[in-house]
Write a sequence for this structure.
């Protein structure tokens, strides 16, 4: 009998996860929700406990030639906190596991931890455990975040209705442009020890790439306004990809408006400079760690008036598919999930 | 100013962890116990939630030339369950993060997951999440396990008293001997495609290395007998190293008796064959995943009669240090923590 050999890139990350986890049935009553959202949800007696985990590998997720270790530590923690906020929950604890290759010293690890601890202090999260080991393969960082939320406040990906409004926080595409800028300066600096990178006027892009924040403030604002979104995700892979996740899990379609996608002017200037399509960067760039969420139509006035939130479109019935209406209002472009896909062949 | 560069091997794994985490203060009332035990303990309302995490790297923790992926998956899950049992808790959920390099196919991951799922089914644990990414560096496995325990049943490392009895479950050194055997056959097979490894009569050693079990049964037996140990750990790095952890954290010394250390006859035969010191293997071999625990002296008769548990010595006052009394009863050998240390220079 021939054994089939399927390349992982044929399935992609989500296809592989679907295949590996499709027949998993829970054993424990404490398991409320498993794979398929930003966090898993568990109920221990009357408390909802949430958990999320991220694996970051040198050479795949970060490049230490331009990422300072302190920033890397900060960002590694932040991306996990962001997963908890994306469920409308509060991150409380993290565990940090490190695989460390020989070129790193204790002082390097001090720097990495300085960033992790700073993030923990700012967001009020406790570092409670982890595992530390040698690595033959560069730096490996695995962070798991645990938190809680009142049961009736948890927001999943599958609760959007076909008349809901689609909202995003902050602006999109800047982190991606920051990465392009860092890559450009890395290439330019090759072999030139005295090279000074050219970041003037582009500090926001660099900051969005190297030191992103999780939108704890937006979660607090929504709570203050008495709004519980019907669905929510954080934007790590790009708006298109995340929105399609929500639509798939909520059985809806969507329409977003090109002219409503929030973009910072530095992002626009950088796209021009690099001759890249600005909207494509905003739709597919990823690593923004902004919140994408849906609210019932009758919250329109309330969300419109909230600082840092923009209504970018609305859900539709599932059969209408997912599309963006162009600036001139005349055509619809189907959305594609071209976000960062670390499992695809071209990355 | 000169920046100091301290090699990580100068501090070792535990030294590095101590340094990185020494000034961490909790922000959340839900954080009961952080770094320094098999698990972190959190209290969400009235429930104690425990979490433990392990990072396993190809080339450091496993060698796929002789470890089948299904066994690797099983063992990766088991070692995490073991950390929960070592706190007298019940593992409930795991998250599994994978970094996968290009030489692995979807079918390989099916095999790995088959092992993880089998362990989950046998131990009643739910796989609730994870992260999957490409790796440039071989296979990376990061597993986090979450569980619970009644508050008054949780057993830490720091509760031993200086008159307590020291107990271990099962037998020691077999997993280490299994590893030696697998390494020997790997060397012997090099360049010989038709090579058939010689495992006859040594199946137990292979099984202990490739497919260890977590001692859920011992936890259940202790519970049935109404015994809550005063301290407990699972033996992953070797009896000496673990016992010294308990003594350090409990501020005790200890005496164990060479002739009471439980060793399987296959382990003894293999040590003879390889011309290795049998007791050294049992003390320092590691990866046994047996339970090491202490109980008050008055439980002596109860633990003596329990199947699969052996009393190997007793705690002492701290100033007496940690030592093993030799078979002839005439001398004391100070214990050393020579367990597997992935951070040390020689590993």
């Amino acid at each position: 009998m021939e054994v089939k050999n399927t390349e992982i890139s044929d399935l992609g990350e989500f296809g592989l996860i679907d295949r590996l986890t499709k027949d998993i049935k829970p054993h424990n009553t404490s398991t409320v929700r498993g794979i398929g959202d930003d966090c898993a949800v568990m109920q221990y007696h009357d408390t909802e406990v949430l958990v999320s985990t991220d694996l970051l590998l040198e050479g795949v997720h970060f490049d230490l030639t331009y990422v300072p270790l302190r920033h890397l530590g900060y960002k590694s923690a932040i991306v996990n906190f962001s997963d908890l906020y994306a469920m409308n929950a509060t991150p409380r604890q993290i565990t940090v596991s490190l695989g460390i290759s020989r070129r790193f010293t204790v002082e390097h690890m001090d720097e990495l931890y300085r960033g992790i601890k700073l993030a923990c202090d700012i967001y009020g999260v406790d570092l409670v455990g982890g595992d530390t080991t040698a690595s033959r393969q560069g730096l490996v960082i695995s962070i798991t975040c645990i938190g809680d939320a009142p049961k009736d406040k948890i927001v999943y990906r599958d609760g959007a209705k076909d008349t809901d409004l689609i909202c995003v926080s902050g602006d999109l595409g800047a982190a991606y442009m920051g990465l392009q800028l860092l890559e450009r300066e890395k290439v330019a600096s090759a072999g030139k020890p005295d090279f000074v990178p050219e970041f003037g006027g582009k500090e926001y892009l660099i900051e969005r790439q190297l030191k992103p924040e999780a939108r704890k403030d937006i979660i607090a604002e929504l709570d203050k306004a008495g709004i519980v979104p019907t669905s929510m995700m954080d934007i790590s892979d790009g708006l298109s990809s995340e929105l399609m996740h929500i639509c798939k899990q909520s059985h809806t379609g969507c329409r977003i408006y090109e002219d409503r996608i929030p973009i910072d002017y530095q992002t626009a200037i950088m796209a021009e400079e690099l001759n890249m399509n600005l909207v494509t960067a905003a739709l597919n760039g990823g690593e923004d760690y902004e919140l994408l969420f849906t609210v019932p139509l009758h919250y329109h006035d309330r969300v419109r008036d909230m600082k840092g939130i923009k209504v970018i479109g609305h859900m539709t019935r599932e059969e209408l598919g997912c599309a963006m209406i162009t600036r001139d209002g005349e055509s619809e472009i189907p959305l594609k999930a071209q976000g960062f896909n670390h499992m695809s062949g071209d990355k």
